[in-house]
Amino acid sequence: TTVLCLVLLCIWQAAKAQPNLGPPLPIIPQPVRARAGGAPFVLTSRTAVHTGPGLTPSAAARFRQYVCTVGHLTLSLQPRAATGAAGGIYLQLDSQAVTHPEGYRLVVAPGRITVTGHDEAGVFYGLQSLSQLLPAGTGSALRVPGCVVEDYPRFGYRGMHLDVSRHMFPVPVLKKWLDVLAFYKINTLHWHLTDDQGWRLEIKKYPRLQIVAAYRAETLIGHKKELPHRFDGQRYGGYYTQAEARELVRYAAERHITVIPEIEMPGHALAALSAYPALGCTGGPYQAATFWGVFDDVYCAGNEDTFTFLADVLDEVVAIFPGRYVHIGGDECPKTRWKVCPKCQARIKAEHLKDEHELQSYFIQRMGRYLATKNKQLLGWDEILEGGLSPGATVMSWTGEQGGIEAARLGHSVVMTPEKEVYLDYYQSLNPRDSLAAGGYTPLRKLYRYEPVPAVLTAAQARYVRGVQANVWTEYMPTPRKLEYMVFPRLLALAEIAWSPRGPRNYSGFLARVRTHDPLLGALGVVPARNYDEVTD
Ligand code: TNX
């Protein structure tokens, strides 16, 4: 008996360690545990969605909309129906049965589908998984395979960044994006609103940001390596009104997505300086940049007006974005002007700083203190480590992993976003006729294989890695179509590394699931790239 018990114990342990038993379900990101089996549930126009106590009707309404688009069926919605009653789809909250925040349990049986969430987000994610099990297409009855799925995220921060300064996209396009992010359980949109080439958020106190900084004269086409450059001769620009930004935040929240605004400082500020030249070290005149890169003219760190301006801007920003983070950039700030600017040099002296790097740290720390008075936390690119990290700052490690490693060792939260691994402006294929991209090569497999927690961190340090994010810089993405081409299907790999448990990743299995998602993406209105490299080693 003892031997038998030991054997059974071993089998049970092995089953626990081996998260996915049974035939795979085509869910992306891969759930923690998923077992397919049993008879299917047949969804018809008579199927009702029952929303249990404590839940808002929002998740059921989203699901109904999806089923209508994909399956051409209209489900009925039942608020608070008794669980024992008729068949149908039951949504319920149970933080005891499902212990992980954002976690859910999905059971598909012949007469009934149950989605149990730890919280409202959990129920929402359970419905996303269920949505992915629906066959896309028409028909009066949709068969959902019988299964049991138990699932929760590995990371609390699952991010996608979008640069709207280099090229901007209409609000309906951004909403479609949010739908797709939610479908893949990504919960953060990092919205890069300002840069050298354009300021994209309405700030009521500074109208010249809308009139001047939102536009650039004409745009360089072509890659830096591909001289001679060519200009398109077009004035380009625009901005999002505060009402539009608020609407986007609301739309995102309904899908359990937080929008983090980024207001760049002290570098990448040419557009702002073109509107308010007194905030630069030389006093201008300046022009919003018409080509890509890094520019010497940055906010003057010796001028008090710079801090007043930025504090005023942040006042309006925090009133729009309710999330706990505000991103203040901090990347790629040349010190060329500061080195010869009398005001900056006077500041260095007055504050007993060693050099311009410490001046950058002074700048960021001052803004960090300001954000703290507004109950917000500072998020910045890894250059905010330069000259000393601001207390409580979270670091987004983009130049590689080193910044993130350093920050985690100092006990600061980290979001991993190393450019060589997760930048979606890099090429996804080696096809010489592929359309122009920023350079680099990040095929689907490379992104899929990326492990966000560096092996050099101790277990305690590793806990500071809050998550992972893919960045979408849009220098070479002038249209929504090109944006989609660059982002899909690579976004699906990001979703999986951000959500699914650590462990050996089966790339060919992932690829097979990606292919089954083609029609689902189509139903969401997204056309993914098809000529990406499926490199296998
Ligand atoms: C670096 S990543 C930048 C961006 C560019 C990108 C192009 C980062 C914090 N800064 O300004 O768009 O490279 O790949």
TrEMBL record:
Q: Which residues does the UniProt record annotate as the domain Glycoside hydrolase family 20 catalytic?
A: 155-501
Keyword Signal included in the entry's annotation: yes
Cleavable signal peptide:
1-17
* EC number of this enzyme: 3.2.1.52
The biological processes this protein is annotated with in GO are:
carbohydrate metabolic process; glycosaminoglycan metabolic process
Q: Which reaction does it catalyse?
A: Hydrolysis of terminal non-reducing N-acetyl-D-hexosamine residues in N-acetyl-beta-D-hexosaminides
Catalytic residues (UniProt): E332 (proton donor)
Q: Which family does it belong to?
A: Belongs to the glycosyl hydrolase 20 family.
Q: What name does this protein carry?
A: beta-N-acetylhexosaminidase
> What is the species listed in this Swiss-Prot or TrEMBL entry?
Hymenobacter setariae
Lineage of origin: Bacteria, Pseudomonadati, Bacteroidota, Cytophagia, Cytophagales
